[in-house]
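Progress report, Aim 2. The chain analyzed during this reporting quarter is listed below.
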Amino acid sequence: MIKFKLILLLLFANILYATIVIDDKIQKLEILSSSQIYIDKTRKLTINDIAFKDIKFKANDKALLGFGYSPDFNVWIKFTLKNGSNKTIHKILEYGNSMTTDVVFYDVENHQEVQDGLLNISSKRNSINPTFKITLEPNQSKIYYLKVSSYITTMIVKLNLWEHNKFYKSEIKHQVTLALFFGAMLILAVYNLFVYFFTRDISYLFYVLYIFGISFHHTLYVGIANIYLVNQVTMGYIVQFASLFIALPIFFLSLFFKNFLQLTSYPIWNRILNLLLLLFVFSVIIFLITDIFNKYRNIFAVLVLVYLIIMTIYLTYKKNRQAYFILIGWIILISGILSMYLSSIGVLNIYQSFPYIVELSLLLEALLFSIALSDKINTLKTKLIIQKKTENERLEIQVFEKTKDLKLSLEEKTLLLQELNHRVKNNMQMIVSLIRLQTNDIDDKKVQALFLTTQNRLNAMSELHELLYQKEDISYINAYEYFTTLIEGLQDTYTQDISIHYNIDTDLQTEQAISCGIILNELVTNCLKYAFKDKKIKDRDSCIDITLSKFEDRYTLIVKDNGVGYDQEEVKKSFGLILVTTLTESKLQGSITIDTQNGVETIIKWREEDEEN
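Predicted structure tokens for the chain:
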């Protein structure tokens, strides 16, 4: 009986000590600073132990309590609410941290126990933070308890009592603000992903992976992922592998840092960073498969970040342009992370005055890094323009020198070719002179005629080399000049009063000119020798028509006389005719047509591209 009275006395004393009077007019009320706290380091106390045994709670005057990451104790919170009105009131109690693993709400009087927290989210819950319904009858007082524990995530305690409509308006505003933040981060990630596809700069890919990693981690931190992205089973795995989700953004940030600032230009610093990253990856694997050194699981992540900051300061000192952007980004990011950490351990409650400082710092940092990447493109573009200009100038000088050398070489080759043609012409003239001298000693008319024919054939080639010697461009020959020179020599040989008519409107390629010259020599020689032997023919005007034309790529050579003609059957075995036919078909790959009805008309046709080299 005495023990029962003592318990009642203690309960009454507690009610008097920390009673929070409320009514239906209160829209929002912070109640943690009017609550009592008890730290259970054994983690064995139950609600019965807390409510009915002599447990010494301590008064609290702070609106936010931060106990850091994965504390090894339970925190009990005790507060008393009294309805100071004559109406029944309904309120919502919000526990202001979505990352706490377990939150249990106790209404001892009504034997009510409600579980919530990161691993106990109800499918009906649509708020980011855990919430509990409280109902008080008119003038009723009631003691409530909360047990909170977090074995792997942060444990930050913040309690607010809300009026229903006010809470949901505030919740919608909060979720819309977070949605805008994540939308902006997604836009930055997608933009830089497209830039990566176009530039193939691996820095952009690592940066995109960093944004996705840090954004997903933050959805967990602020509670968006808990109610929209993952279910309870998946959340259990995420909590189990929390080290991995913390490590990935830092790992990708380090790779982005390496490539963006081109650390390969600083071998020693680069090797140290590679070593730290290897140790970092190894530590994450160890922490995932074992609980050894669990309290120190983030030490290598911190070391990597500190090293990156030191490197950034060093590169800034070395006046690395990109390092300036990174340094400002570090200042912004560290400010947000430091605020988050100080808040989690209860040193600084900056969220009270500016609840979105972390989101703002992450967004500004991501935006600044995007600007830095764009600046890198502009810097590279400027360097490329300068390099291209320098390279163009170098190439122009090189082309000028090469062109000059080629011109000299071409001039030398032209001179050599001219000299060669001149020597060939002289040699042929010497042979012709020797043949002429030899002809004078021969009495046989047939042999003389044979020597004369050979002499004319050599003259045909000799005249061509004379023309080539006089020309700078030896690709083409002036057909009119060549033909007239050739035929004037034949006329001097046979001394006949025969008119030669020329109709030549095209030039000839050198190789074709050689064949055409020999063919023309044979055909005109035959005309001069045989076409006008008949006295009747001599009495009238004797003429030879020579035509050379070109239509598109097809040449036509016509040699026609108004002489006596001949029987083709009788002369078809003539060497001259055989030579003409052979040159036409084998060298020019053309066709030959001979008409001997009214004089002799020889038509030779060939294509320009069929010329043999």
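Residues 170-381 form one domain. The chain is about 55% helix and 20% strand. These observations will guide the mutagenesis work planned for the next reporting period.
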